[in-house]
Specification:
Order of helices and strands: HEEHEHEHEHEH
CATH superfamily: HUPs
Strand content: 5-15%
Shape: elongated
Helix content: 40-55%
Radius of gyration: 22 Å
Low-confidence stretches: none
Distance between the termini: 83 Å
Number of domains: 1
CATH topology: Rossmann fold
Amino acid sequence: MAKAESSGSGKSRLRRRARIALLVVVGLLIVIPLGARIWVARAANARVYSSASQVPPCRVAMVLGARVLPNGMLCPFLRERCDVAIDLYKSGKVQKLLMSGDNRFKDYNEPEAMRNYAIAHGVPVGDIALDYAGRRTFDSMYRARHIFGIDKMIVVTQAFHTPRAVFLARAVGVDAYGVNAPGDYVFKSDVRECFACVSALLDVYVFSPKPILGRKEKI
């Protein structure tokens, strides 16, 4: 009888330890991403603006890529980003636009789609530069500094993304400001951004990855 009670007590302790371990893991999965996002937001907060009229003038505005539809149209997020960048250009806040996005597949080209949209809305083709290897935000910022020779710029993206973009730009040596483009709130984007901020901190402070580079192209 004593052995049975001892065995039952041992199993109970194991179950309690397993539950505690699970709670610790779940807690870390919540606390670390949230902490990373708060860190990044605080680091960039003073340089993020809610409208194009408020941001200090710079020579270049970078538009960060997002999904292009199969028919070549920009998704709503990307269209809003381009609209803000076009406003910056037409108001004289910037003189050049850098469209940075994904072009790793032959039939998918974010920078070209963004350029076509800007041209259709009155931006001269000569004032638009394309970064075809902006696969990640870190890559876009690193290439802005090391391929396009930019040391100061405005970054245009949605509010959930702007702090990380500004944080990464400054981490690679670009004096960056951010402008929040309009966009409907999407909870999934907020959640994903928490984990993206963890990746951003690891890129900056641990891994220091080198993106695809290539021939330098001054804007």
